[in-house]
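User: Hey, my collaborator sent me this sequence without any context and asked if I could get a structure. I don't really work with proteins. Can you help?
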Amino acid sequence: MNPPATTVWLPDLLFTGGRFESGLALVADAAGRILRLSRDPADLAAAHRLAGRALLPGLVNTHSHAFQRVIRGRTEYRLGPERDTFWTWREMMFRAATSLDPDGIYDASRMAFLEMALAGITTVGEFHYLHLDPAGRPYAEPNAMALAVVRAARDVGLRICLLHTAYARAGWRRAPSVAQQRFIIASPDDYLAAYERLRASLAADTAAGLAWTGYAPHSVRAVPPDYLRALLPAMRAAPAPVHMHVCEQTHENEACLAEHDTTPIGLLDREGALHADFTAIHAIHVSNHEVAALARAGARVCACPTTERSLGDGINPADTFLARGVPVALGTDTNAQIDLLEDARELETHLRLKHLQRVVLAPRPEPSAPPAPAALAGLLLASATRHGADCLRAPGGALEPGRPADFFTVALDDPTLAGADADSLPAALVFAGGRSCIREVVVGGRPIVADGRHPRQSAITAAFLALQRDLWSEP
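Assistant: No problem. I've predicted the 3D structure and written it out in structure-token form, which is a compact way to encode the shape of the chain:
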């Protein structure tokens, strides 16, 4: 008999990283940590039966700007006759950035995090840069906005890595706009003091693996080299995630070349900022030698395919990164849509459009090897789980002893998956499944979504609707 302190789940199928297996139970202790994957008859007899379900590790959303959930559907038009680009979209996004106070960012973030939970996401990396009030003044609690975002994640039940952003300028020879005033932390000392204060505020949650901090120099356009150099000793002193927007736009590369006579990755390499805890967000417009620099450093990349498609950024060269051994994680970024399974398939299908061929990212089999129908889907699921956890130093990402019981289930009779067997289910899930088939979500052994619904879903949605009315109603 299992001791009462353990919980056992037995789905029809359980994903072990490369394939689905039947007759395999997941056993967790009272703290929600995985003890074993088991076929022991005693474990099977004690299990909570998840009939008609397949169980997978919780998805990890490596890169999010939760507050941008408020502009969904509000930027899909032209402001004028000029070409619409990332840069014109950004001006529209700034309107929302000037409008939110700590209560507002709490309700916006909580809505985004609710959608993430319903989509099977159990951990989020929140790239946070709304530090000051709209006039550029500090709140009485300097990290009031960040703490509101963390509280929103904890209230939904997600783990969160709060990536505290350094933002010193609007760009080369550019003064901050009115909207950007609240992003600015003028000196490295001020940034490090705010970071340490935030880290101390989250100490208890960090010890429990629920909320922790990471460094986020926003980009080379927002953080000049002297500022970055001042941060490097602290970023090297203790292991922590370091994330940075890199090479998202060709204009960004051109401006960096004009200012520094090298590209963003070249500049970071020259400054010694690339290392094994570094994640390059986007990294779309890169050369082979820049990919080699990331590979030498042991760095990672986070692609955000839905956002990159929405903003016309370009296609992430994931095939080049993976060929050089650079892991690729996934993020929802602007939260124009929150479906990490969609992002996983776009990582592959965008490359199919680019190269005019199929099955781009799948490893090439040996000539005599049998077909491996789950190989490509397994690789894409790793981007949505294990690689993201590595980018964030998160405890989840895989169903292994010692890791937390963070997982989601899918309904095998969902119309999008009907007819799939154990061999074809990984590909069916990645290339046809989505939020509609996700039924249960568990974080640290604690259910946060049951039968496709979060217990606080109605209240969270109502608060968000009220926020949207306040933000967008005509005066």
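In plain terms: Residues 135 and 178 are 8 Å apart (CA to CA). You can pass these tokens on to your collaborator as they are.
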